[in-house]
User: What shape does this take?
Amino acid sequence: MSFCSRCGKEIPENARYCPNCGRGDRREVAEQRTSGMAVASLVTGIIGIFLIPIIFSLLAIIFGSVGINQASRPGIKSHGMAVAGLVLGIIGLVGDIIFLVIWFTIY
Assistant: This one.
């Protein structure tokens, strides 16, 4: 799947020019890249569920927010990965807060 480096719209494989903006030869067509922040968000979100939830879950929320912002740019994909990391971060953080509230009310 190819995308125009100028406007970010998808270009058919057999097209020499972008049908949207008219940009030239296929050598100028940019492939989509994966957002590093989206990957970091997913990894820290998974780790945050099991180890040190306060730290890793907060990192997953931050990285997920930045990854979603990056995924809205042309040529960058992985919006779903950033959302998954953000959700895992929120689940880990809420779970940790519930655990701490229960822990301190019992003891």
Summary: Helices lie at 36-50, 53-71, 79-106.
